[in-house]
Amino acid sequence: MSKHHQVLVIGGGTAGIMVASMMKKKNPKVAIGLMEPSEKHFYQPIWTLVGANDFDYDKSMRPMASIMPKGVTWIKDYAEKFDPKANKVTSREGNEYTYDYLVVAPGLKIAPDLVEGLAEAMDKGVVCSNYTDPKHTWEVLKNFKGGTALFTQPATPIKCGGAPQKIMYLADDHFNKIGVRNKTDIIFAMPGNVIFGVKPVAKTLMEVIDRKDINIRFYHKLVKVDAEKQIAWYEIVKEAISDGCVVVKKEEGDIVDKDIQYNYKDAKVTEEEGRIGIHFDMMHLAPPQQAPDFIRNSPLVTEAGWLSVDSGTLQHTEFSNIFGLGDVADLPTAKTGAAIRKQVPVVVGNILHLIENDSLASKTYNGYSSCPLVTGYGKMVLAEFDYSKSFTPDPKLKQLLISDSSKEHWRLYMLKKYMLPYLYWNKMMKGIEV
Ligand SMILES: Cc1cc2nc3c(=O)[nH]c(=O)nc-3n(C[C@H](O)[C@H](O)[C@H](O)COP(=O)(O)OP(=O)(O)OC[C@H]3O[C@@H](n4cnc5c(N)ncnc54)[C@H](O)[C@@H]3O)c2cc1C
Fold first, then answer.
1. Positive or negative, the Cα torsion across 397, 401, 404, 409?
2. Which atom from ligand 1 is nearest to the alpha carbon of 326?
3. Catalytic status, residue 245
4. Which of the two ends of the chain, N or C, has the fewest CB atoms closer than 10 A to its terminal CB?
5. Residue 231 C-alpha to ligand 1 middle, in angstroms?
């Protein structure tokens, strides 16, 4: 009998747990160590509903111990240093771990320091974010008295690209309900020039934007937050590729910078040194995000600092016994749990095939990702797509009597609120392909 191969997994998030449990299921003889310092595991996608008071935060968490797959050795420590030539990882406590195969899946780091003043604004609670504290988002929405409600996202890659706008649509519903919407301007300021990269979904979202009377400001790169004066400062960066989705409705005279706005609203703006400062009464944002420091400082990354892997095989571009997936990976698709669902079988298949046959398996990852775009309480659009950004809806949706998931549907909202969390805890975390 050949020796028992050793696989070391870094990170016990969506990707790490699913990889470890699927691998254990498929080949119980493989010895798996999983390095993860946290005692808690969160189902982050539901934080969108937590921020809108439609889901209980405590139910988004399970103790790490309860989902650690049986037979996997949990190493409760931080990975700190890679030595890929010696097949070795050093932990924060100074222990060294060797491996035959390494799976790198520590997710990403929320990096408010990349925007001047943002860390302070977040600490002081002047801005809120579902990415860091969805319960605080709800406090802010609940207590809002009207004025300018600014929703925004950074110029870095972020996980779940749709999350910054989902909470805006829910907020609009809530503001209507508590009677402050008529004294509120909702502004969505974003660095790109399309509301969403998948065409049929973008079309529906623009109809939602019209219905909800939201002002979009394109090409806005957030560079500074003034917590004291409640101003978000932007540089206008117009080099993004045009996708033909920008339409301006109002008369020319009404609009300051009409080619970068949709559905102009006359909110208070200050211009200074080429920057535009939007004065806000409440602000929700996705903070800037980057790969964790120990990844960025490792020999495993691309120039942009993300884990360098082949987009089809998910094998490291230089070290053939290293694989990477999830938010940390440099892949030209959206960083989501849904993407991980399709990445895990590829990584597990490849490592087992290497162990058993000394070659990669034939199955590759096609860039599948999906974004459940909640457009209000009880309303959702489901964007599913691949590397080509084509709309690729799952045929199984027909069984749920959803004929066109690019259109809003309450059944899709039910999927988000009930079915997806169930699938996450009972299928994905158990290593079952879904
Ligand atoms: C507000 C919000 C809404 C979202 N909505 C959706 C959605 O609707 N649909 C969807 O599919 N996805 C959504 N996502 C994204 C999804 O949650 C992530 O893409 C997914 O969880 C990423 O999984 P991961 O394993 O790469 O990282 P994570 O799940 O973040 O896990 C990373 C793990 O690595 C550990 N770690 C960190 N550093 C180290 C270290 N040095 N050593 C060892 N371990 C380490 C961490 O403790 C953590 O447990 C959303 C996310 C947010 C925040």
1. negative
2. 26
3. no
4. N
5. 30
- Band (238; pLDDT cuts 50, 70, 90): confident
Annotated catalytic residue: which of 160, 189, 202, 206?
160
For ligand 1, which residues put their CB under 6 angstroms from it?
10-16, 35-38, 44-45, 47-48, 78-79, 105-107, 130-131, 159-160, 163, 292, 294, 326-328, 335-338, 340, 372
> Beta strands 79-83 and 88-91: pairing type?
antiparallel
How far apart, in Å, do the first and last CA atoms of the chain sit? 33
Q: Which of 46, 50, 159 to mutate to test the pocket of ligand 1 (most atoms within 8 A of CB)?
A: 159
Contact criterion met (CB below 8 Å) for 62 and 13: no
> Does residue 385 contact residue 372 with C-beta atoms inside 8 Å?
no
C-alpha of residue 108 to centroid of ligand 1, in Å:
7
Q: Residue 371 and residue 160: Cα distance in Å, rounded? A: 7
For residue 227, pLDDT beyond 90: yes
Alpha helices in 178-292 (DSSP H): 199-212
Q: Strands 96-98 and 88-91, how do they pair? A: antiparallel
Structure tokens at 36: 């993860």
The predicted model gives 61-70 an average pLDDT of 98
Output the six-digit token pair for 70: 């049986």
Q: Which of 371, 373, 380, 415 is catalytic?
A: 371
pLDDT tens digits, 286-298 = 999 999 999 999 9
Alpha carbons 46 and 250: distance in angstroms, whole number: 37
What does DSSP say about strands 282-285 and 261-262: parallel, antiparallel, or unpaired? unpaired
CA 332 vs. chain centroid, Å, equals: 13
Side chain identity at residue 100, one-letter code:
D
